[in-house]
Amino acid sequence: MRGERIFSIDPETAKDIDDALSVTVNENGTYDVGVHIADVSFFVKPNTPLDRDARKRATSVYLVQRAVPMLPPALSEQLCSLLPGQDRLAFSVIFTMDIEGKVVKKWFGKTIIRYGSIHINTEVTLMSNHRSVAKLSYSDAQRVIDGQSLGNLSTDPAQNPSSIEHDINLLQSLAKKVRNQRFQNGTLSLESLTLSFKLGEDGFPIDCGQYERSEANTLIEEVCRLFSQNSSLLRIPLVSSCCWSTLQSLSKLLFIFQNKHCYADMIHQLSADW
After folding, report:
1. Distance (Å, whole) CA 36 – CA 224
2. Short-list 241, 243, 227, CA closest to 109
3. Which of 113, 118, 115, 93 is closest to 103 using CA atoms?
4. Which residue in 111, 125, 131, 253 is a FRET match for 234, CA 20 to 30 A apart?
């Protein structure tokens, strides 16, 4: 996959980029949709102090004004983060889809690329060299879905922004078809209200409102759901450096009760060591 366009779509404030996407059109009219997840297993060896501490933390915790990572920032935000133009370790799945969004073939591979050299892992297939060419936000992707351009967004010089725009629209089209298939098969819509907070100068919430979900959010959710459903069938241990935190709800409740002291104490406790 040398030269493939691989890009990430995350919240604007995201520091730990743990997943990225790609899509190519095949000569037979099918599409290869790639989902690339940051693989930290090279850095986190079993039963090491780093592994034991990460297991105690269990997950990254996303509070209103900051994130407390499961792994040290040097890993979660740098060495393991899928930064544009940097060679990174990743576990990748390529879904070959037909025009209706149905998966007709799957390819799983553990990509190990470091300083331009490739180290073969005999347990799984190895993907060729690939790099992330653009770090996009949800608003960037949504502008493209709405028919606008990426503008002067910084990308890999070897890639044309219009090509990335084409990929986003193609992924959006396939994601909508995958979503429609799920609901035709009986999936329930259980979405609930998500709050978005405005912070004051002291870093504490001063106001809140409903978080506005966009089609770009749904695109990422559908593709990552497809990855999760299929990777669970493999006996390959995946260690993710960032997960959605169940303590988000707790932080929101603390804001509602306006107990700043408890809120500050919780942040201090969760921030220990890192």
Report:
1. 10
2. 227
3. 93
4. 131
**CB contact set of 80 (below 8 Å; sequence gap of 6+):** 16, 18, 38, 39, 40, 43, 71, 88, 89, 241
Structure pTM? 0.73
Distance CA 118, CA 113 (A): 5
Report the alpha-carbon distance of residue 185 to residue 140 in Å, rounded: 32
Beta-carbon neighbour count of residue 257 at 10 Å?
Answer: 9
DSSP 194-209: -EEEEE-TTSSEEEEE
Report residue 248 as tokens.
Answer: 């988000």
Q: How many CB atoms lie within 10 A of CB 95?
A: 24
CB 5 within 8 A of CB 158: no
Tell me the C-alpha distance between 75 and 267, whole Å. 21
CB contact at 8 A, 205 and 199: yes
Place of tokens 């591979």: 109
β strands within the chain, DSSP E:
5-10, 19-25, 31-38, 61-62, 67-68, 90-97, 103-111, 113-114, 117-118, 131-137, 195-199, 205-210
Residue with tokens 């990335």: 164
Tell me the pLDDT of the chain averaged across its residues.
76
pLDDT, one tens digit per residue, over 73-125 is: 999 889 888 887 778 888 888 999 999 999 999 999 887 532 222 232 333 34
